[in-house]
Amino acid sequence: MGNRLPVPQSQMGLGKGRNAVKVCIYGLGAIGGWLAYKLAKAKLPVDVTAIARGRILEAVADSGISVQDDDRLSTANVKVSGDPALLGEQDIVLLTIKGTALLDVSEHIQPLIGPHTLVVSCMNGIPWWFSQVGPFAQNPIPLPSIDPDGSVAKTIPPSQCLGMLVHASCSVLGAGLVRHHAGNRVVLGDPSDAHSVRVQEVASLLSSTGLDVVVSDEVHAEILYKLWGNLTSGPIAVLTEATLDRQLDCQLVRNFSRQVMDEVSEIARQLGIPLSSLPEEKLRISRRLGAITPSMLQDSKAGKPLELEAFFGPVRDLARFTSTATPFIDALEGLLRLTSRANSPSSSNAGKAAKETRGSRRVKEKYSHGI
């Protein structure tokens, strides 16, 4: 996707006047924990902190973050807090949360963000800033599904955001313990200025951790490219419990995935963001990853809320804006929502309650809010 720019080997200005760059990882799930560990081991001086809660907060505060990679287990100490106000303004904030938490996080993240702070979104799906900057700066497109009243963009200004796509597979083995399965590549881009100094600075910092960093001058296209996978492999895995290889070895499922990807491509074309890759090429690359369990299936098995609105909502917003028909995406979303309801721990109680009140009132399903 897009042109790939060289990554400099030294920093240029982040943390100027101080000994270390202040970096906070907001969210210590699988990817957030892995990135926090990598940053704590960086060759450049970095003051690494993290925001977490519950058992993860307690575990990391007591024992640090441990990463299992093949047969190796290594631990890094990271200062962690549940209160952003205790950490103060940062040079960089890596936002590694689930889309389901975005609105809540936006209400608490403000103490970390100063006028020069860079917020690097490392989330799946289309981010809140996507249609506010770069090619959309003059005519922003609202995304009410993920930022209903614009409060997220007010708290986390799109002009201070970078986009980062993490092409790695990780899973949480326990509180503060992450398993790294495969992949070490991240794609970084500045949606406001593709050739900015700030994106090169962040790339340099991330490269010092041992990550394979690629700087792209078309981060919007990179996001839509990854969305091809987000909208297919994850939802299909939840519906079928099939790993990625099994999905793509079934020609009927492969054909369905291609139809979903074609609809995303048409939305991109209407927005003036043509994707240089073809769906079949992406499917071939995905098949080579092997028996990967998508994070959405991991969340489903763990009983966690699925990122339904985060994945499908912005696509729906942009499809409506561009008047693009999306019957395959809509069908997939509907099936996934029904499956999510059926698998919900409260589904049996809800069914019982519905029977008891049948005839006296109707139960209204509010699809726009997820499960």
TrEMBL record:
Molecular function GO terms recorded: 2-dehydropantoate 2-reductase activity
GO BP of this protein: pantothenate biosynthetic process
Transmembrane segments annotated in the record for this chain: none
Bias (Polar residues) ranges: 341-350
Catalytic activity, EC: 1.1.1.169
Pathway: Cofactor biosynthesis; (R)-pantothenate biosynthesis; (R)-pantoate from 3-methyl-2-oxobutanoate: step 2/2
Taxonomic lineage: Bacteria, Pseudomonadati, Pseudomonadota, Betaproteobacteria, Burkholderiales
Entry superkingdom: Bacteria
Pfam families named among the record's database cross-references: ApbA, ApbA_C
Official protein name in the record: 2-dehydropantoate 2-reductase
Chain segments carrying region Disordered: 341-371
Domain Ketopantoate reductase N-terminal: 23-190
Ketopantoate reductase C-terminal domain span: 220-337
Keyword terms, alphabetized: Pantothenate biosynthesis
Gene3D superfamilies attached to this UniProt entry: N-(1-d-carboxylethyl)-l-norvaline Dehydrogenase, domain 2, NAD(P)-binding Rossmann-like Domain
SUPFAM superfamilies: 6-phosphogluconate dehydrogenase C-terminal domain-like (SSF48179), NAD(P)-binding Rossmann-fold domains (SSF51735)
